[in-house]
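pls design
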């Protein structure tokens, strides 16, 4: 059995009991492919078209997505652990009610991505565009948002309403017009963050560091 899959037919042949293991899948079109309720383990997707793919209810372990288009893909109600997204497109993806643990997003476009009701644990977003991302009622714990290239993580118009953030690094983040209404922030680092025009109505802060943050025109 080959470890390199280069056609949709190859992928189909290697699926066993809705499981796929230890394969490199590269340079093929799997648009709207059905991976729902799959076990994906130690896979690498490289240059693959997965727009609109259905990964709902799947277990995704130690999987790398490199240069992959996942626009509007469905990850909701799934479990992601130890996986990486590099230089990929996740615009309008659905991660609602998903558990995401030890996952790295690097140079990935994630505008309007949905994380509603999601548990994000020990994960990082580096040099990724999260404009309009929706984190309502989510739990973020031991997470980091950064952008060494631009100097600030892109989170303008993000929605954290009713979310809980614990030990989250948002130093220097661009949170312009973000919504934190009724959110709980514990040990969150907001130093030098741009919080201009943010909605902080009902927001609760505990041991939050916001030294030199721009709090102009916030709504409280």
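designed seq:
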């Amino acid at each position: 059995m080959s470890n390199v899959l280069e056609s949709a037919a190859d992928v189909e042949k290697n699926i066993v009991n809705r499981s796929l293991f230890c394969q490199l899948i590269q340079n093929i079109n799997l648009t709207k492919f059905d991976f729902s309720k799959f076990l994906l383990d130690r896979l690498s997707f490289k240059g693959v078209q997965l727009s609109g793919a259905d990964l709902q209810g799947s277990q995704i372990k130690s999987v790398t997505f490199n240069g992959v288009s996942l626009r509007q893909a469905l990850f909701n109600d799934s479990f992601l652990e130890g996986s990486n997204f590099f230089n990929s497109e996740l615009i309008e993806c659905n991660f609602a009610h998903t558990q995401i643990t030890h996952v790295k997003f690097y140079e990935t476009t994630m505008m309007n991505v949905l994380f509603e009701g999601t548990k994000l644990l020990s994960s990082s977003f580096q040099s990724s565009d999260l404009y309009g991302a929706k984190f309502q009622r989510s739990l973020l714990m031991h997470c980091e948002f950064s952008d060494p290239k631009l100097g600030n993580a892109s989170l303008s118009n993000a929605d954290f309403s009713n979310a809980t953030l614990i030990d989250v690094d948002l130093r220097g983040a661009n949170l312009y017009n973000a919504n934190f209404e009724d959110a709980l922030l514990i040990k969150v680092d907001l130093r030098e963050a741009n919080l201009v025009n943010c909605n902080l109505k009902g927001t609760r802060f505990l041991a939050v560091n916001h030294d030199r943050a721009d709090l102009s025109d916030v709504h409280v």
